[in-house]
Every structure is written in structure tokens, then in C-alpha cells.
Amino acid sequence: MMNENSVLKVNSLTVGYTRKPVLWGIDFEIPRGKIVGIVGPNGAGKSTLLKSIMGVIPITNGSVKIFDQSLDEVRKRVSYVPQRESVDWDFPASVFDVVMMGRYGRLGLLNRPRKADKEVVLDCLEKVGMADFARRQISQLSGGQQQRVFIARALAQQADFYLLDEPFAGVDAATEETIIQLLRKMSEENKTLIVVHHDLQSVKKYFDWIIMLNVNLVAHGPTETTFTEENIKKTYGGKLTLLSDVRNILANTPYPTKENK
Amino acid sequence: MISFWIILTGALVAVSAGLLGCFLVLRRMSMVGDAISHAVLPGIVIAFLISGNREPLTILIGASTLGLVTTFIIEYLHKKAKVQGDAAIGVTYTFLFAVGVILLSLFAGQVDIDQDCVLYGEIAYVPIDTLITASGMNLGPRPVYLLGGLLIVIVSFIIFFYKQLSLTAFDPGFATAIGISTVLWHYLLMGLVSITTVVSFQSVGAILIINFLIGPPSIAYLITRSLKRMLIYTVIIGILIAFFGYQIAAYFDVSVAGCMAVTTGIIFAACFVYTSYNSKMKKKDIVMTQIPQSAETV
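^ inputs. structure came back:
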């Protein structure tokens, strides 16, 4: 039975590009208002999981329910942030143009952006600290600024459930801090966020729920009880030569809670 | 009057093809336009053989079908059979064009098209094919009306569906996620490219169409970083090419289509030199201004 508080329910999801499965029999559910991290080695299918939830990649088998409905019924409540490298930043567009694309889902087939849409866009740029860059060409942005633009575009969708593909990859420390603060504020507003993440060191600091993935689902649940050395070992297998480093990190860092951050 | 009709025809083709070409160039699919412009040939011949006439509508249907088939085969080979994108294009269109050439030579007696005309066209003959009313009034060349109608279709397509066209070109993943079908807009765009190719090839030939599909948008892309301005500049550049191309051809008494293509190359080279020089100067500026900017607000 679907939990009333559950935002996403993935049921025996299998995805394969050619014949080799990229994801195999994935089953999990995530509760509302959490910041959920997805970790796993390269090729574990982290991005594929997000893409298949968003219907960008066809599902081979299984089902995905968002707010207990199919994606088509709740598309306006869901927002997706692709990997920054997935687009051509030399595309002729300004920061404002790109963030406005976040409004396209709400505009009809033929409608043009109205004044209210423009206000939302400027407000979202303000939130990510890019208000002064609205007229800037996207080709002139740094990696961190590009990521902020993508986050602003997602905010402009005014959704309840956000899926972010590696928002912290290759960004400066200031941007990382801005983004995580923003995510925390959103989760306080009872929005739910799923974040593909690479840096194991910050997992305990950033996420209250974790999905550990390596083609199969290794573990999922509250970070505190799930992100254990044993599960990390299972997820990364022999691939993680830095395993001893991680062990040290886990041993030496106290678990910081969201409140005292 | 003759020169006016030739320039107008050239400009109409340049603007129609250029506007669609902007989206091809941005999707990194310039060569798909090349492929389509060649691969419609068998479609034209087959439509001709089946219907036995040169009614524009029959030929349009035949050619657009083949254009979409070409697009489909290229996509299939690339995505499903994992053939390299450019190799998929090369294999597909040379095959289809060759089939067209064979059909043409097989049924040469029944089909009133020749291969040279397909490739090079003859824009200078445009004024001969005139539309004359029952009362004997000369309304000007027939291709101009067809091309004019096509231009209206293309301009409204881009104005009404600017959102969908720009988003599917910039970020297909995000477009799909918000429910805009990338496949649908891909095929609509390619369908229009096929129709444009067919309507234009009789007057300007396949080679000049490729030039108009890719040349003006690439020049506009060099000189602006705004999609709306890129579209407007493409229109202006297209008209300039048609005008100066014709003047040069008339002066030296050489091929009109050839001169238009050469004009495109010259304008491209000039813009390229200008922008590279400019960006060098700008880089000096940026180095000076970027120091305070690195302390940007968080």
C-alpha cells in the first residue's frame, strides 16, 4: 500500500540500453520533505535512475509512481535538473532565457511568457544569487554559475518534487554552499529533493535519506542507519580503492545534524 | 524585371532555408539538411512515376515522405544500431540519392527531370515559368508564389512554436521531462526541411539549398549570442546573399547559383576574421575587468 506521505514509489524498475541492464529490479519509496542522496560508483545507473523516473529514457520493466500517480498526471509538480555538461553552453541564449524555460511546462502550447512569468524568473535568479547576471550570455558563465542557472530554472517550475543530477559536480565552494542552503530551505517547505551525489565525505552532512546504488539497489533508508561502512563496501565493492580513507572519515567526523548547521 | 524575379526567388529560398537552418545548426545537424536535400530525389521520381504528372502537390508528398524516411533511417542507424552519427548520414543519403539517379536513368523517357538540374538547378530560368491568368495577365513566375507560401508557413511555425523549437534544441532531456516531445519536433522540423528542399530545388538546385540551410545561420551564429537576433540576422544575410550573388553573376556573366554560394563564403570569411579579431580585443578587456568580478556575491 502507498504510504500517504510517500512522494516517489519505484517498483521493480529495470532499464537496459541494449541488452545489458543498467538498472535491475529497483524497489524503493521515499517520504515527503526529505533531501535524498543517490550514491554509487560510476556506471551504477544513478543518472539513468533519474532519467527513467522523468521518462527521458524508456523503462524496460517495472513502474514509477509520483504522488501515487503517473508522471503525465503530475508533470507540473515535478522538476528535473539534468547534468550541467549535458547541454551546449555556447547556445545563443541569455541567463534569463534559460531560466524562462522553466516556465514553459506551465505555459500552454502557444502561450507566450507573461509578466507574472518574468517576475518568477527574476525572483528565482535572486534566490540563487544570479540576479545581476540576467542579461549575461550563458557562454560567459563559470561552471558554478551555470549550475546556479540550472537550479534557478528548476525553481521557476515551482514544483513539489525535485530531481537533481550531480548539482555539486565541478562547482566552487561558494556555489555548493548556496545550493545546499537552498535545498534545505526547500525541504523545510515540505518539498522533496533527490540528488545524485559523488562526494561520500559530505553525504552525512547533506542528506537525511540515502539510496545506495550499483545496478542493483544495495540499500536505502535514513542516512544515519543506512550509510554504514558495510553498505559502502557493498556498493563500491573492489572499485573503491579509497575505502580506508572513507573508513577514517566516518570514524573521525561527528554526525552533524541539520539543525546545528 | 527578370533580375528582380531571380533575386526575389533566391531571397525567398535563402530566408526559408536559413530560418530552418538556424535550428539545424544549433542541433548540430547541419549535415542532416545536406542528406535530406539529396535523398528526396527518389521520392520525387517515384511520385512522378506513380502520378505521371508534375503537379507540385504530388511531388511534395513524395519528396517529404522520403525526407522523413531519411531522417528516420539516420536516427535508427545512429541510436539503435550504434553507427556513428556522421557515418549514418553518409551511408543513408548516398544510397538514397543513388537510387534516385538509377530510377531517373531507368525511366528517363517518362520523367521530365534531369540530374544536373537536380544538383545545380537553374535559377536564371525562373522567370520563364510564369503564371498567366485566364485573361492573359502575367502574374510573375510560378515558383515565387510557391516559395512565398512556404515562407509564410515557416515563419508562422517558428513564431508560434518558438518555445518548443528552442527548448528541444538547447536541452532535449529537460524538454522531455516537462512533456515536450523531442521526437515530434525533430520530425516536424525535418519535414519542413524536406518540403523546403523540394519546393526550392527546381529553381536553385540541391547544392545551393545546402548553402542556404547552413551558410546564413552559421554567419549569424558568429556575430550574435541571442537566438532571436540569430534568426533576424539570418533573414538579412540571406537577402544580401541573393542580391549581391546575382549582381556578381550578372557582371561576370557566370552561374547565378554559383555566385550566391561564393558570396556566402566571402561573407562568412569576413565575419569570421572580424569576430576573431574582436574577441582578441575583448579578451584583453575581460582580463582587466574580471578581477573584481571574481568576488561575486554568494
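Confidence is low (pLDDT under 50) at residues 257-261 of chain A. Chain A touches chain B through 35 residues (CB under 8 Å).
thumbs up if we can close this ticket
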